[in-house]
UniProtKB/TrEMBL annotation:
The keyword DNA-binding applies. It holds the Pfam family TetR_C_8. It comes from Limosilactobacillus gastricus DSM 16045. This is HTH tetR-type domain-containing protein. GO terms for molecular function: DNA binding. Keywords: DNA-binding. Residues 34-53 bind DNA. Residues 11-71 form the HTH tetR-type domain. It comes from the Bacteria. InterPro entries: Homeodomain-like_sf (IPR009057), HTH_TetR (IPR001647), TetR_C_Firmicutes (IPR039532).
Length: 181
């Protein structure tokens, strides 16, 4: 779990830690990275790391949460553009291939599910839908796992497909699944 206070200093420290992880991810696979390496890159003390995060997974979660919330704000600001939760998930992933690859290669799909679940209220507001909490939980979890499966193949194929290609592929997958019921 990450715990970042709303003061400028805490936010800046969390950002430096996130940037440090992003830099190390360009050189090493996620499972091979240590907290010390991440801290060293931007001169952050390990005590500062532990003040904000418990593990490196928490940094990934924080990064994904920040991207998710920013993407939702961007969609909300461009209300003329049709909103698709599935496309939003794929857009975040394709615009951040290093983070996506780290999550996929380390099999941390629960981070994506946790991030979408923690932002369910924003999603519901964005999509302008009314669902019970239970139905919303099922919907976001299902779509997140479908997106994860699509992104897993995308990473294994070298992140070649564009956002539009992935989105069309995912739509075909979902239509096929729907026909199985």
């Amino acid at each position: 779990m990450y715990h970042i206070k709303e003061d400028q200093r805490s936010i800046q420290s969390a950002q430096l830690i996130s940037e440090g992880l992003a830099m190390v991810l360009k050189k090493k696979d996620y499972p091979d990275i240590s907290i010390s390496e991440v801290c060293k890159i931007n001169g952050i003390a390990r005590t500062t790391f532990y003040r904000h995060f418990d593990t490196l997974d928490d940094v990934l979660m924080y990064q994904y949460d920040q991207l998710f919330q920013q993407s939702i704000r961007n969609y909300a600001d461009n209300s003329y553009e049709p909103v698709s939760f599935a496309r939003l998930l794929l857009q975040i992933a394709t615009e951040n291939p290093t983070l996506t690859t780290a999550i996929i290669k380390s099999d941390r799909r629960e981070l994506l599910v946790a991030a979408t679940r923690s932002n369910e209220k924003l999603i519901m507001d964005l999509l302008q839908i009314q669902l019970s909490n239970k139905d919303l939980s099922y919907l976001t979890t299902l779509l997140t796992y479908i997106a994860y499966a699509t992104l897993k193949e995308w990473v294994e194929h070298g992140c070649q497909e564009s956002l539009d290609e992935l989105y069309e592929l995912m739509k075909r997958e979902v239509k096929f699944i729907a026909n199985q019921f």
